Amino acid sequence: MSCVLRLGAARIAFEVRSYFRQGDSVFFTFLFPVMILLIFAVAFDSQTFGPPGEEVDAAQFYLPAMLAAGVLLSGLQNMSIDIAMERSDGTLKRLGGTPLSPVSYFIGKLGQVLVTGFLQSLLLIVVAAVFFGVPLPTEPERWLTFAWVFLLGVTTCAILGIGLSALPRTGRSATGVVIPIVLLLQFISGVYINFAALPEWLQNVASVFPLKWLAQGFRSVFLPEGFAAGEPSGSWDHPLILLVTSLWLVVGLAVVGLTFRWIRKDA
Amino acid sequence: MSENVVEVENLRKTYRGGLEALRGVGFDIRRGETFALLGPNGAGKSTVIEILEGYRDRTSGEVRVLGVDPRRGGLDWKARLGIVLQNTGEAPTASVRELLAHFASFYPHPRNVDEVIAAVGLSEKAKVSVRKLSGGQRRRVDVALGIVGRPELLFLDEPTTGFDPEVRRQFWDLIRELQGEGTTILLTTHYLDEAAELAERAAILVGGQMASVGRIDELGGPEARVPLVRWREGGDVREERTQDPGAVVAALHARLGEPERLEVVRPSLEDVYLSFLGDEARRITAAGGVA
After folding, report:
1. Which residues have a Cβ under 8 Å from the Cβ of A63 and sit 6 or more positions away?
2. Tens digit of pLDDT per residue, chain A (267 long)?
3. What pairing do the DSSP bridges indicate for beta strands B201-206 and B209-215?
4. Cα separations in angstroms, B278 against B45, B270, B272, B283, B289
5. Which of A163, A200, A236, B126 has the fewest CB atoms within 10 Å, i.e. is most exposed?
């Protein structure tokens, strides 16, 4: 077991280094939420959001949404496409011929997502605070909420991403399979569109998936307390966020455990 | 304890869709031996090697690799293997040295990374990204990755494709060093001189079946090895197959004096190999197959 963890650590270093050497495609995923935040903050500059007396500007309103989007992109989208490509281009076949445990491989991927997702979130928060003067919470409890929502969200999305990587039959088709799923989830989960503005039935559909809950969790960190009344239940529902996301994590782990193969055995 | 590192018996593989890739293949590889698997494209060489490596499941038959059924080979088993796949795959962004050091860390008793890099002749490229190497250089990285774990059994699936002649010779030297250390090697190659140079025994695989198996210099049996005497007489090239080339040459000399363009040819591995493919082509034609 210690060997599995030691190699997992070695994989994290290797994966993070590789991530930042990729340039182009991966970097786009990395900067995408920041770019969307910039566009929304500028485009809706004249509008305010939220209940009377606690209005916030567009940058503050969209910061939690983009944090949730970043977790989804870094975790689920990046991971599933990355692994589908690695399966397709022979990287996994090569690893599968070595005594590397798949668990160490997963630890490496998870570590890469945690590191890159954390840097991405940090960049989002810094840009929001420095360029748009978004007030950051000062209460330690709020940062504690941020920490667990982030960690649970990234882990869940990454594990689901590993599970989803089995779906595309080739690396080429991976983007075509994964991106529509990710886009759809973002639209119904209150990332681009104010969740309160969606019809109730769509809110209910979105509530099945973890992204809606992650976005809600980040809202509870960065938006004034009065916004809780705007949520479907009228509160931040932290226990439900924990419950739904954890359930998806468990489901994801089961799926990965049952379906992950180094290569497709077409036989 | 068995001294056979690889044991294959009546191995069959039918792919989904009905293609019979292997139709009863059997051979053993002894400890410390280099064994070549020869055959044309589509003969089933890679299917055999991938079943032995644990990548593919077999339809039926018995397979033991280092005493273990590859279907149940765990990480400890994989630690004793070295695998050089036929297809290189995508080149990583890591440098040669980074990649090798990383793979070395997977194994309990890895070789010295810089020595391995030197052995494949990439010392000057050690700090260069694998992505920036030429095709032949990447292939050498593949070979380096296959041996860095100090394998007991090394699979080499067409390792020298894309090598220029000089690099191929260097590769042969490297393989001889591994042989000297007692490494057992299973080699597939299209270069018969390579098989003759490196392997003690070989199997010729044609159409998913064993056409012949044995020592390189005995493949095909004695009849395939009958020497050929060739000379020129009256403007024509004459040939005679004979077990007693000396007697034929003596008779020629008595009859003609010094024969013009005299040659005594012993069929090379390549001649024997091609005669098997010829037999197979005739069988297909006789069976009313491809016209």
Report:
1. A37, A124, A125, A128, A134, A218, A222
2. 678 999 999 999 999 998 888 877 667 778 889 999 999 999 988 888 888 888 899 999 999 999 999 999 999 998 999 899 898 888 999 999 999 999 999 999 999 999 999 999 999 999 999 999 999 999 999 999 999 999 999 999 999 999 999 888 887 888 888 989 999 999 999 888 888 889 999 999 999 999 999 999 999 999 998 888 888 888 899 999 999 999 999 999 999 998 888 887 654
3. antiparallel
4. 18, 12, 10, 9, 14
5. A200
All structural domains of chain B, each given as residue ranges with its CATH number in brackets, are 4-218 (3.40.50.300), 222-286 (no CATH)
Selected residues 37-76 of chain B with any CB under 8 Å from a CB in chain A: 53-57, 75-76
Three-state secondary structure of A238-265: HHHHHHHHHHHHHHHHHHHHHHCCCCCC
Interface confidence (ipTM) of the complex:
0.87
Minimal C-alpha gap between A102 and chain B (Å): 10
Look up residue B208 and give its DSSP letter.
T
Q: Which residues of B touch A99 (CB under 8 A)?
A: 75-76, 78-79, 106-108, 149
Number of helical H runs and strand E runs in chain A: 11, 2
